Amino acid sequence: MQAIDRTQRQLIEQLAPITESELIPLETALGRFLAEDVYAEQDVPASDISLFDGYALSAPSACGSSRQVAGVTYAGDAPAVLPEGDFVWRIFTGAPLPDGANAVIAQESVTSSDGRAVILHESMSVGAGVRPKGADSRRGQRVLCAGTRLDAAELGLLASIGCAQILVVRKPRVAIFTTGNELVAPGEPLEPGKIYNSNHIILVSALTRLGVEIVDLGVLPDEASAIRTALLAAAKHVDLVLTSGGVSVGDADLVRQVVSEIGTIESWRVFLKPGKPLAFGRIGSVPFIGLPGNPVSTFVTFFLFVRPALRALAGGDPQIDRPPLNLPLAQDWVAGDRPEFIRVRRERAASGETRLQPFGDQNSGLLSSIAWADGVALIPADRTLMCGDMVDYFPFEGWYL
């Protein structure tokens, strides 16, 4: 069995980033990866602007001085010209400073009897109350690098420099299969010995959240010839073949066996609980990942191994994860002989401290444990932990970045 980090590295090393790109509207680019560096074509802001409602003036200026109001500028107006001498210019938040002004005094810091003149109640220095030209980005400045995943903040930045379209990496195409004669689609009659296929919706949902083009090829029976035909056909059209089930050591676990015959298996066991029977390799030149069949194992190994693989395919950083939180356990825990990701939920103790409460039954077939939990805690192998001991906690919401 291989360690988790070694398996991740070995998997990533066999992946070649997608080189095809496409130009798409900015509003459709959420979750996509930039295919090239992006540079600002103009300064943002395009001129010095006021940080608040007040009066633009030429600094330095002394407290107690009186100034005449020479005009007014609103956000969206073109810059005016401040006359020389003891003048101020009425200005509002986001408006460009008039030529000749270099500071803004807040309207709360002046008094005015008739709106035509003001008395300053504080001294002003050059640059006070001003957002300088180019403070956000300068013309010619690189604002985002190739490989950046575009979320709301990045899209807002691109909009601020005037981008209407953006060049992004083509979405990874992933063929998914679930395997097993026992699987029945939800809504169909459940005959004796059958179970509803939950892994299919887990994979489809997770891949959708991660912005992947899904090639859904349904359920594979426990039959070597059918598995062989389906995998070979799928590998002709996708960037990754992904299966769940059929990679352990049972007589009906045929996926790993078939892939080893038509391609290569680089690894098939990970020093991990849940999720030891994980396989990866190639079908021809196309990467293959075979996830274990138990639904919790499918869920955990997807985010540990498939997610970074997808980022690598899209040209992003596969090791982008935020550092885990370090939080105390809410009960004693005796670890097994493998590192274990246990399902936990943050709960507030009477003392006000946030602690991690494990789900009562950590069986890898219980999807109720995943639905109940808000993350997983990593328990090192061969450790006995006491209530209050600190562990690494990985919240689920971080897994969709």
TrEMBL record:
InterPro entries: MoaB/Mog-like_dom_sf, MoaB/Mog_dom, MoCF_biosynth_CS, MoeA-like, MoeA_C_domain_IV, MoeA_C_domain_IV_sf, MoeA_linker/N, MoeA_linker/N_sf. One of its GO terms (cellular component) is cytosol. It comes from Halothiobacillus neapolitanus (strain ATCC 23641 / DSM 15147 / CIP 104769 / NCIMB 8539 / c2) (Thiobacillus neapolitanus). SMART domains: MoCF_biosynth (SM00852). This is Molybdopterin molybdenumtransferase. Belongs to the MoeA family. GO terms for biological process: Mo-molybdopterin cofactor biosynthetic process. Its EC number is 2.10.1.1.
